[in-house]
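In this section we walk through a basic example: taking a raw amino acid sequence and producing a predicted 3D structure, encoded as discrete structure tokens. The instruction is simple. Fold the sequence below.
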Amino acid sequence: MIRVFIVDDHVIVRQGLRRILEEAEGIEVVEEAANGVEALKKNHTLEWDVMLLDISMPEKGGDDTLRQIIHENRDARVLILSMYPEDQYAVRMMKAGAWGYLTKDVVPEQLVVAIRQVMLGKKYFSSTLAELMLLEINADREKPFHENLSDREYQVLILLGSGKKASEIASTLSLSVKTISTYRAHILDKMKLKNNAEMIYYVIQHGLLN
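The resulting token sequence is shown next.
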């Protein structure tokens, strides 16, 4: 029996995933968590085989949660299940230790296949993700500036680039405004930008909001 741990901040998503997986032979949902903080607490006492992890959650996002879980157990099998398209976060999450990346519009059968494949010790690559990983490996050109950012800096970049204020971002990420300002300074320095206007232009020009 494959024991699945679902981590997503939307109740309706968790309920939907539970129904799908309970109908699949040999799979059971052993626990749920609404954010990274809750997931990490339960992880210390819970036995699970595969975790379905969302990226965007309050208190502690999926990227930080993934890194901490992998830090505690390098063999932890985590599948990212996100609303964000693969070209935005998939490669980053795979590099961070995820065993696969699926978008939330995936058909139930594909989700079940991914879980079973990961349980067999094989990483799950959709055709899109496989192409992205191949491009990443074979890239011989200089990477765009945003590829040099940490995952948290990249997340702040996207939010700033979408026009959100530092106070709004701080609330969304459960961080202080001072911390967001520090991230902003690092982003401007690494990307050789001068202000928020140039940051917004960069994000739009590189299609990072799509």
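Looking at the output, two observations stand out. The chain has a mean pLDDT of 88. The beta strands are 2-7, 27-33, 50-53, 78-82, 100-103. In the next section we compare this with other chains.
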